[in-house]
Amino acid sequence: MSDAFPGDDLGEERLAELGTRRSVAPYVAGVVAVALAALLWILATSDAGPEDGSASPLIGEVRPDVVAEDRFGEIVDLSEWDGEWIVVNFFATWCAACVVEHPELVEFENRHAEAGDAKLVSIAFDDTAEDVENFFNDNGGSWPVITDRTVAGTIGLEFGVARLPETFLISPDGIVVSRLVGGFSADQAEDIMARS
């Protein structure tokens, strides 16, 4: 009597193949379960929003010198803004968290436009000037943006940027008072400014 399925000449080979598949299935399920658990752990422990990341070695120090050309061809020199609050935002148009935070930056700019007590500058990472221009045309904002990739990389190193987005608040006396990691909040920036 044959072990073959009716009408199947390769019954034994097919049974062996099915047995092999069944013995591999628990391992594949185990790997998927471990990967899923790791992903859930990362999501549970990652930053959910803007964080006052005061771990930066720049906190309490004089701001780095920044002199660069912005997207309008104007020279941005942070030393000329001494006496006002300065917000230095590091972003990219392709960064999802940067897109989410952008309306908060626009809100901050609007709040301080009339009083003229705060300046905002963004440093674009790995973006073309055209992409940045299109992004601002679509999403608003009229502050200076430095788009030169080499200059942006150098400024990022001076500020110790680890990931995008990051924003630094600089007091009117030129001291870095806060580093916001993972997104910018206009209200959080206002609170930091009021406390400093």
* Overall average pLDDT: 82
β-strand number: 8
Biggest sheet overview: 6 strands, mixed
- Unreliable spans are 31-51
Task: Please state the structural category.
Answer: alpha/beta
What strand order characterises the main sheet? 1-8-7-4-5-6
What is the molecular shape? Answer: elongated
The run of helices and strands is HEEEEHEHEHEEH
Distance between the termini: 90 Å
**CATH-defined superfamily of the largest domain:** Glutaredoxin
Rg calculated over all Cα atoms: 26 Å
What is the level 1 CATH name of the largest domain? Alpha Beta
General description of the model:
A hairpin with a 5-residue loop joins strand 2 and strand 3. A 6-stranded mixed β-sheet has the order 1-8-7-4-5-6, sandwiched between helices. The protein is α/β, with parallel strands linked by helices and 196 residues long. It has 2 domains: 1-46; 51-195, Glutaredoxin (3-Layer(aba) Sandwich). It has 5 helices and 8 strands. 43% of the residues lie in helices and 18% in strands.
Topology:
Layout: H1 11-45, E1 51-52, E2 67-69, E3 75-77, E4 85-91, H2 96-113, E5 118-124, H3 129-139, E6 145-146, H4 149-159, E7 166-170, E8 176-181, H5 186-195
Parallel strand pairs: 4-5, 5-6
Antiparallel strand pairs: 1-8, 2-3, 4-7, 7-8
